[in-house]
C-alpha cells in the first residue's frame, strides 16, 4: 500500500470516528431530556389513560419525564407517520394498536408508512378482549339463542360500532364470517355514542372492549353473551368465551404496544423494553389494567413483532373477505 493511500484511509477512518463519537456519547447519556409518547387517539380514551399510567411508571425508572402527545386522526395514521419519520434517537415513541399494526395496511390502498420497515418494535403493553353485548331487553339470553335469532332474521339485526375499520367493527365481521350470519352494520363516530345507543335500545348489540365496557356490563346496562378471549376473564367469571359458547377459532381482542422509529440503536431499544417490562410488573399499573379488564403483555421486542405480524395476517383475511376499505 502506498503512503498516499495509507494516508487517505487513515483520514477517512478518523473522520468516521469523529462523526460517530457524538452519537455514541448521546446514547451513553440517554435519556437526557423529556421523552415524547405519541398517542394516536384523543385524550381521555382508554389508549390515552393506559399510556399515561405506563408512562408514569417508566418515568420512575428512566429518570426522565415522559410527555404524552395526543395526535388523533386518519384512523391512527397521523400519529404513526409522525413517529415513523421521527429521528431515531429514543426520544419519540408511540402507542401502537391493532389499527397501526394489523388493520390499516389492509384497509388503505396506500399508507404513509410501512408497519414492517418503518418502526422499531419495543414491546407489548396489554391485550383486552371484546365482548358481544346486547341490550338487557333483547330476547336472546345466550349466544346460542342470539345465533338462532340472527339466522332466522338475516339482515334485520343491526349492530353498532365506533366506526368503519374499528376493532369492534372487524370483530363482528370475524364473528359473522365464522358463524355464517348476516347482521347490518351501523357505524358511529366513536365508542361512546355507539354504546349509548345500545344501552338505550336503539341498536340491539355490538362488540364492546372491556376497557370501556366493563362498568356497563357489571352494572347491568348491557348484557354480555360471550367474551372474545381464550379464557374467561376474572372480572366476568360467569360470561363464557366465544369458543365455550359454540364459536371456536374466534378470538377478538385489542392489543397495544410501543413502537419507535426504524433504526433505533440496540442499546436504547433494550433499555426502553426493560423499563416497559418493569412498568408492567408495577402493582399500581397491574391494578389499573385489572380495573379495565386488561391483560399485561410483557416480552421482548421480537415477541411483540411476531405477534403483531401474525395478527396482521389473521385480520387481513377477514378484512379482504368482508370487503372493508377506508379509502
From TrEMBL:
Q: Which Gene3D superfamilies match?
A: Bordetella uptake gene, domain 1, Periplasmic binding protein-like II
What SUPFAM superfamilies does the record point to?
Periplasmic binding protein-like II
Give the UniProt keywords, A-Z. Answer: Receptor, Signal
Domain of life, source organism: Bacteria
Determine if Signal is one of this entry's keywords.
yes
InterPro entries to which the protein is assigned, alphabetical: BUG, Bug_dom1, TAT_signal
The UniProt entry, under CDD domains, shows: PBP2_Bug27 (cd13578)
- Membrane-spanning segments: none
Looking up Pfam families in the UniProt record yields:
TctC (PF03401)
The secretion signal range is: 1-26
**What's the family?**
Belongs to the UPF0065 (bug) family.
**What PANTHER family would the database entry show?**
BLR1237 PROTEIN, TRICARBOXYLATE-BINDING PROTEIN
Q: What is this protein called?
A: Tripartite-type tricarboxylate transporter receptor subunit TctC
Amino acid at each position: 500500500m502506498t503512503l498516499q493511500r495509507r494516508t487517505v484511509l487513515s483520514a477517512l477512518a478518523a473522520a468516521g470516528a469523529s462523526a460517530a463519537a457524538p452519537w455514541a456519547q448521546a446514547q451513553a447519556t440517554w435519556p437526557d431530556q423529556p421523552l415524547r409518547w405519541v398517542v394516536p387517539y384523543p385524550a381521555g380514551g382508554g389508549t390515552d389513560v393506559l399510556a399515561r399510567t405506563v408512562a408514569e411508571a417508566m418515568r420512575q425508572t428512566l429518570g426522565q419525564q415522559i410527555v404524552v402527545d395526543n395526535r388523533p386522526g386518519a384512523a391512527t395514521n397521523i400519529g404513526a407517520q409522525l413517529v415513523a419519520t421521527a429521528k431515531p434517537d429514543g426520544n419519540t415513541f408511540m402507542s401502537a394498536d391493532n389499527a397501526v399494526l394489523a388493520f390499516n395496511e389492509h384497509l388503505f390502498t396506500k399508507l404513509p408508512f410501512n408497519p414492517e420497515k418503518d418502526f422499531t418494535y419495543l414491546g407489548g403493553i396489554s391485550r383486552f378482549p371484546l365482548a358481544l353485548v346486547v341490550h338487557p331487553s333483547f330476547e336472546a339470553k345466550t349466544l346460542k339463542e342470539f345465533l338462532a335469532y340472527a339466522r332466522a332474521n338475516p339482515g334485520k339485526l343491526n349492530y353498532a360500532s365506533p366506526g368503519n375499520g374499528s376493532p369492534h367493527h372487524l370483530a363482528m365481521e370475524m364473528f359473522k364470517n365464522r358463524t355464517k350470519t348476516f347482521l347490518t352494520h351501523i357505524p358511529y363516530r366513536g365508542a361512546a355514542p355507539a354504546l349509548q345507543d345500545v344501552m338505550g335500545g336503539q341498536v340491539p348489540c355490538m362488540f364492546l372492549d372491556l376497557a370501556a365496557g366493563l362498568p356497563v356490563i357489571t352494572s347491568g346496562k348491557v348484557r354480555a353473551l360471550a367474551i372474545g378471549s381464550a379464557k374467561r376473564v376474572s372480572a366476568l367469571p360467569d360470561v363464557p368465551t366465544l369458543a365455550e359458547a359454540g364459536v371456536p377459532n374466534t378470538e377478538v381482542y385489542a392489543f397495544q404496544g410501543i413502537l419507535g422509529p426504524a433504526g433505533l440503536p440496540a442499546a436504547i431499544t433494550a433499555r426502553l423494553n426493560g423499563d416497559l417490562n418493569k412498568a408492567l410488573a408495577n402493582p399500581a399499573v397491574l391494578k389499573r389494567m385489572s380495573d379495565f379488564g386488561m391483560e399485561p403483555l410483557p416480552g421482548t421486542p421480537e415477541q411483540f413483532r411476531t405477534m403483531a405480524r401474525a395478527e396482521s395476517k389473521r385480520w387481513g383475511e377477514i378484512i379482504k373477505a368482508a370487503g372493508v376499505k377506508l379509502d
